[in-house]
Amino acid sequence: MSGRHGGPGRVVVGVSGSLGSLAALRVAAEQARRGGRRLVAVIAWEPPEGEYLYLRHPDRAWAAHWEQEARQRLDGAFADAFGGLPLGVEVRTVAVRGRPGPALCTVAHRVDDLLVVGARTGAWRSRVRRYVLRHAECPVLTAPAPRAPKGVARELRRATAQDFALRV
């Protein structure tokens, strides 16, 4: 498959560090490996005070700090999911300032791209999934988060992504 910009489409994955996004990252890496495509991992970020307040009192150093924090979370997701970058896949990481849904649709703009998102319950994640399903110009694949066995929900609330990392 060849895109309107030349070359095969990419596999674009939304990463937040949640268990659902780590599952999506693993699925996306496998899809990229199988198809000989580039993996583009995207993390969206906004200033913690929100864009409106930031625009009233802009501070480039403050924004650069939060962008760096987002990039570190993205690197941490790769460490949690694979212990580093996945083997056999060309990887590009992108930190986009903005809301997750629009950011993912902006990056995955080619019709032959594949957009992968985690399928975990929760208002924020559901909002992102609903947004990309409505607005993406490419196919969307949802990857389910690991399911908890009955009776362990309390313990899982204290778990970290490292507890679910693949052991090699």
Automatic annotation (TrEMBL):
InterPro entries, sorted: UspA
Coiled coil: none
Highest taxon above the source species: Bacteria
Domain UspA, first and last residues per copy: 10-142
Pfam families in the cross-refs: Usp (PF00582)
Name of the protein described by the UniProt record: UspA domain-containing protein
Higher taxonomy: Bacteria, Bacillati, Actinomycetota, Actinomycetes, Kitasatosporales
